[in-house]
Amino acid sequence: MMGYYKEPEITAEVITPDGWFRTGDLGVLSADGFLSIRGRNKNVILGSGGENIFPEDIESLINNFDHVVESLVVEENGGLVALVHFNKEEIEQRYNDIYDKVSDYSDRKIEELKAELQIYINKQVSKYARLNKVIYKPTPFEKTATQKIKRFLY
Fold it and tell me: CATH topology for 47-153?
């Protein structure tokens, strides 16, 4: 790519003097020489002690938790907060036979899942990457045309 059309300032920000394009991706080379993408430069959260926290790593753990559809980790007041969208229909279906008032129970179950999730994640991450809070998001996150969460909105 030669640059952005009639945008020399933006072009200068993303193309190095020797012609390389800065994607904003952050990677790590393994001892075997394999490159793994850790996340995006603009998504890195700076911890209180100067640590780089990659929210995508924590989100990957969260998304493997039972009943979680999608998640987003953000910085709030110096701490990490996980915004989590649980599959409420799945929770209601799973406990439908056991409880009469499913919606009341599913709300209580979501509160339990939030607490379990925070404990589960905090056991697996470094001290500086622990979650201070888990917030239930009842609706799916707003996404781009390529189905990526619009982080800047949250």
Answer: GMP Synthetase; Chain A, domain 3 (3.30.300)
